[in-house]
Specification:
It contains 3 helices and 19 strands. By secondary structure, it is an alpha/beta fold. The strands form 4 sheets. It has a 7-stranded mixed β-sheet with strand order 2-5-8-13-16-18-19. Strands 1-4-7-12-15 form a 5-stranded parallel β-sheet, covered by helices on one side. It has a 5-stranded parallel β-sheet with strand order 3-6-9-14-17, with no helix packed on it.
């Protein structure tokens, strides 16, 4: 079947990857199928559910499936977690409504950090020039970080302590501690605090 667009003679030289042969998806599960399916049902009923079900109940459900969730963590409605056993969140952190953590690899969030509404955190991508095989890399989000609304954080990055990521920012590189980062072409825009938290402690 062809599309309505006309093909040029050069089109036949451009490869198309057979997606049915793309490797890697099932290799990231790290759990039996029955647990994957049970988590999917639990997530739908207790975690992603838009009703104002208890944040504590969401945390208990995540812990039951292997997540490490600290004390006082607030998890808002419509949160999505791909694999809870690949998630660690420190004490008193906040996960905003509609946050999606697509963690086929480890995602670590420090204590007193905020992940705001509709932010997407993904550890996975694909080998786009070879076979579309799955590639995953961990993500580390430090203590006191604030990732504001509708950001995208990609695999392999580390966000330093007390950094602030501005709304609608795509994070594809490491961010130093105490840095304000964002913009259409994201850059470091200065310091969040005049004194870094560890400097203030020493004063």
């Amino acid at each position: 079947m062809t599309t309505g667009a006309e093909r040029s003679p050069a089109d036949s030289d451009i490869p198309v990857i057979d997606l049915s042969q793309a490797p890697g998806e099932g290799e990231t599960w790290n759990r039996p199928k029955w647990m994957i399916y049970l988590w999917s049902a639990t997530e739908l009923v207790l975690v992603t559910n838009p009703w104002q079900i208890s944040s504590g109940l969401r945390a208990k459900a995540l812990r039951a499936f292997g997540a490490k969730i600290g004390d006082g963590v607030i998890i808002r409605p419509r949160t999505r977690i791909k694999f809870p056993w690949n998630l660690e969140i420190g004490d008193r952190s906040w996960i905003g409504e509609g946050v999606w953590i697509h963690n086929q690899n480890q995602v670590t969030v420090g204590h007193d950090s905020v992940i705001s509404q509709e932010t997407f955190i993904t550890t996975g991508s694909h080998s786009h020039r070879k076979d579309m095989g799955l590639i995953t890399r961990p993500i580390s989000i430090g203590n006191g970080v604030w990732i504001t609304a509708r950001c995208v954080v990609t695999g392999g990055v580390s966000i330093g302590q007390s950094a602030l990521v501005q709304p609608l920012t795509r994070v594809s590189e490491d961010i130093p501690e105490n840095t304000v980062y964002g913009g259409a072409n994201p850059i470091a825009k200065g310091r969040r605090f005049r004194q870094a938290p560890n400097e203030r402690d020493k004063a």
